[in-house]
Specification:
32% helix, elongated, binds flavin mononucleotide
Length: 332
């Protein structure tokens, strides 16, 4: 359920040069599977593959590497905060460019969201299937317990029950929830547009600010396109007529894509079309790039907006999915 919102090549992190160890110092070289795992799992330190008289071993200690005799390979430290999009971290105000996707019925609970928020991740409350009063309570609780750290709430598309979407957005706006994960959409609805527009204003420098951020989780390009473009006039106008957004917000809407981020949801838990990530992700990246400069596209209205694309589902299993059985449920 953790979705890195941008696939990028991590900055090359050169391993520091191995220096000579002082004479007599013990050399903690890893040779057993458990010790090798310990060295590999310490992402804050480099890894050296060395050869000494006893054979090949691993170490994260540069002095031990130098003392071993021969360094065969080295990789620099690569903690999670160095992966993914710096713009995602900046715009969402998080330390890590990862998002923990919603899980229905409060499986993605307030406790989970609070803990992830405190650890610097963007996590989304699993509001799908949760009654309105409980969503209200959960968002109030999250506002209190996250102490200003960012979090999101799921807006699951409910094609036959528009009231459910309205209640979630009412609660999000009441509690000033600044990010929603919009998922399972087949077409845009007034509520997702209302949420986005209700946060639009001009900043002191005159640029359009979108205070309400939308992460749209999709597994089809035609749905992605709806979120990559500005909100359609046909949905914006009635919101103004009903007094739900201002005329100024409606005007600003033309300069802003509906979403800040698209999550490519490949085959996984949740609503997907069971598409492999290796197919879906490049398709969505290509679509995003093709729309970048067209009128009405993410960067086409002069606002310089760029929609990030992240990946979810199948991250650990890039090959064909094994047959499913009730006892072989994916958990993440
Ligand atoms: C038990 C379970 C429930 C889920 N419920 C929702 C949901 O209500 N809304 C939603 O947007 N995604 C839901 N998802 C999808 C996840 O948020 C996530 O996008 C998906 O699992 C892919 O990411 P992963 O590979 O990191 O698991 C659910 C996933 C699981 C496993």
């Amino acid at each position: 359920m953790v979705s890195p919102p941008l696939v990028t090549t991590p900055p090359a992190a050169a391993a520091p040069p191995a220096r000579l160890a002082p004479p007599g110092r013990a050399t903690p070289l890893a040779r057993t599977p458990a010790d090798v795992h310990r060295v590999l799992a310490d992402l804050e330190r480099p890894v050296y593959v060395v050869r000494d008289a006893a054979g090949i071993a691993l170490t994260g200690d540069e002095q031990a590497a130098a003392a071993a005799g021969q360094v065969l390979a080295a990789a620099g430290p690569l903690p999670p905060r160095r992966l993914g999009s710096p713009a995602f971290r900046r715009d969402h105000g998080v330390d890590q460019a990862y998002m923990a996707g919603s899980m229905a019925n409060g499986i993605a609970s307030t406790d989970l969201v609070v803990n992830l928020a405190q650890a610097g991740y963007l996590a989304s409350f699993g509001a799908a299937g949760v009654v309105a009063a409980r969503v209200e309570e959960a968002l109030a609780d999250l506002r209190r317990r996250t102490g200003g750290r960012p979090f999101a709430c799921n807006l699951i598309h409910s094609p036959t029950e528009a009231a459910m979407e309205r209640e979630v957005i009412d609660a999000c706006l009441r509690h000033q929830v600044r990010c929603i994960e919009a998922s399972a959409f087949l077409d845009l609805t007034p509520q997702v547009v209302r949420y986005r527009l209700a946060g639009l204003h001009r900043g002191p420098d005159g640029r359009v600010v979108a205070a309400n951020r939308v992460v749209a989780k999709v597994s089809r390009t035609e749905v992605a396109e709806l979120f990559l473009r500005p909100a359609p006039e046909a949905l914006v106008r009635p919101l103004v007529e009903q007094g739900l957004v201002s005329a100024e917000q409606a005007a600003l809407a033309a300069a802003v894509p509906l979403a800040d981020d698209i999550t490519a949801e490949a085959d996984s838990g949740g609503h997907t079309d069971r598409r492999p990530l290796a197919v879906l992700l490049p398709e969505l990246l290509a679509l995003r790039d093709a729309l970048r400069d067209v009128p009405g596209g993410p960067g086409g209205s002069g606002g310089g907006w760029s929609v990030r694309v992240g990946a979810a589902g199948g991250l650990g299993t890039p090959g064909p999915s094994p047959p499913r059985s009730p006892s072989a449920r994916t958990t993440s």
